[in-house]
Structures are given as C-alpha cells and as structure tokens.
Amino acid sequence: MARRAKPAGTVTAVSALVAHADPKSPAAEAYRTLRTSIQFAGLDHKCRTVVVTSSSPGEGKSTTVANFGVVSAQAGSRVLVVDSDLRRPTLHRIFGLGNARGLSTALLEGLPFADVAQATAIPNLFVLTSGPLPPNPAELVGAMRMRECLEAATTDFDLVLLDSPPIVSVSDALALSAITDGVVLVIRVGKIPHDVVRRAVVQIESVKGRILGVLMNSVNMKREGYYYDYYRYYHAYYSPADGRRR
Ligand SMILES: Nc1ncnc2c1ncn2[C@@H]1O[C@H](COP(=O)(O)OP(=O)(O)O)[C@@H](O)[C@H]1O
Ligand SMILES: [Mg+2]
Q: Is the distance from the beta carbon of residue 165 to the nearest atom of ligand 1 less than 6 Å?
C-alpha cells in the first residue's frame, strides 16, 4: 500500500520535473498558478479527480501532470498521479520508477490504486505507473472498474491526476473526461491549428467533460537548446464561471 511504501523514486529526469528540481523557477511558479486556478475552478464543484489531455501528441501532457502533481504535493495535498496513457506511457521515466506493475495491473487484478502506487522521493506524492501495456487500452480505461477504482482512490488521496493519450488519435481521453471531475487541456502554442483545438473542446463537451482550465504551453524555439528549462514557460488560464468558454 502506498501509505506504507518507502520512497522508491529517484528523480532522474530532473529537467522534466522542474517544479521539484527548481521550485523557484518561473516554470514552477506557472505550475503553482495552474494549481491555484484549478482550486478556484473547483470551489463550487468537487474536484478530486482531474485528467490532463491535449488534442495532439507532444503538447506537454505528461510534463504538466508530473509538475502539477509535484506542486500540489508541495502544497500539502496527498496526491496520486496516474499514468493512464496506456499507449505511450512516460511517467515512470519522468519519476525514475519501475513499471512492472501499475494501472493495467490494478484494473486487471481488481486492486485498489493505492495498493499498486509507488511512493516517490517527493513527500505526499505517489505515482501509479501504466503497468504492462494491454492490447485494449480504450476498453480498459473506459471500463466501469476504472470509474470505481478512481472513486475509491479519492478516499486515499486528496487529488488524483491522470495523464492520458491525445484526443485526436484515440477515445481513451474522452472516456476519462467523462468520469473525472474536471479536465485540463494543454495546448502547445504555435504548433496546433485552432480548429484541431476547437474540435477537442467540442469532443470533451460532448461527453460532458468539464474543462477546468487551459494550459498554454509555450516554448521559446530560439532559445531551445541554448538555455535551461526554465526559459520555457507556461501560462495557465481559466474562467471560474465557465471554463468551457476559453
Ligand atoms: N514547456 C516545455 N518546454 C520545453 N519542453 C517541453 C515543455 N513541455 C514539454 N516539453 C517536452 O516536450 C516533449 C513532449 O512533452 P510530453 O509532456 O511528453 O508531451 P505529451 O505527454 O503531451 O506527449 C518532452 O520531451 C518534454 O520534455
Ligand atoms: Mg505523454
């Protein structure tokens, strides 16, 4: 059980975990802004399970989930980060954890997420890696058992954050949007055409997903490769009244 687990994670991919490696950096501050925004967006609505998704691959979902998890744990919440990208999972690498057992194991063996989750080097932060990749990811994350396990996880954790595959390619993220309390949409600025983003928003709304916030992930291309990670920055925007209009 995660509660009893010894910290197993060695944070190896330090640059990806900027909120842990460099908590004073502008990027870490931007993740804290995202956290505050989500807290406000959830004031009149319980917000214990949040899925992070994007329209396309490579927009920064996993990086966002990992750092969002870090800043939330740093703020004192007991946080579980779940790698529900059962196609191209990366959270085990970001946190330097093994991936022999994880979400797929919990779902297939009917185990509580807390029993399979691993502690990290960061206090209060636990990670449920993907586990072995199943042949039917959409079915697995869309199953009633996923909903039940997620609900049960909220008794063990204050906040459950889910990574996901992109919306354009597969239905997994939509299934997760339908069963979580809220959705954070990551948009890589300048890379994704507006109509692709718009389509993603319509799809999330079509399954009654509640968009809590949009994270604009900007990368200063000129500086890329020459400067450290914190020159890459994030902005979190949201509308407390109706995040969907963003
Ligand atoms: N703001 C950022 N600045 C620079 N690189 C970033 C940023 N966000 C993500 N990346 C990098 O972009 C790549 C894709 O990010 P990732 O979080 O894995 O995207 P996704 O999960 O959406 O596929 C990774 O190599 C990651 O380190
Ligand atoms: Mg990813």
A: no
Beta-carbon contacts of 21 under 8 Å, excluding residues fewer than 6 positions away, are 11, 14, 15
pTM for this predicted structure:
0.86
| For ion ligand 2, residues whose CB falls within 5 Å | 61-62, 90
Does residue 129 fall inside a structural domain?
yes
Residue of 22, 52, 63 with the most ligand 1 atoms within 8 Å of its CB, for mutation? 63
Alpha helix stretches (DSSP H) within the chain:
18-21, 26-41, 61-74, 91-95, 103-109, 113-116, 137-142, 144-156, 172-179, 194-206
Mean pLDDT in order along the chain per 10 residues (246 residues):
40 66 90 89 82 94 96 96 97 96 97 98 97 96 96 96 94 97 92 91 96 82 39 36 35
Scanning the structure block, which residue is given the tokens 């196609």? 87
Task: Establish if 199 belongs to a structural domain.
Answer: yes
How many structural domains comprise the chain? 1
Question: What CATH number is attached to the domain comprising 87?
Answer: 3.40.50.300
The atom number, within ligand 1, closest to the CA of 27 reads 1
Our answer on whether the CB atom of 90 is closer than 6 Å to any ligand 1 atom is yes
> pLDDT (tens digit, 9 = 90+) per residue, 23-67?
998 889 989 999 998 888 777 678 899 999 999 999 999 999 999
* Position 8 in a domain: no
Q: Which ligand is nearest to the CA of 60?
A: 1
Is residue 120 within 8 A of residue 8, CB to CB? The reply is: yes
Question: What is the tens place of the pLDDT at every residue in 188-197?
Answer: 888 889 999 9
Is residue 232 lining ligand 1, measured as CB closer than 6 Å?
Answer: yes
Which ligand is nearest the CA of 166, by number?
1
Which domain range does residue 176 map to? 18-245
Whether 224 maps to a domain, the answer reads yes
Could you tell me if the CB of 84 is within 6 A of ligand 1? no
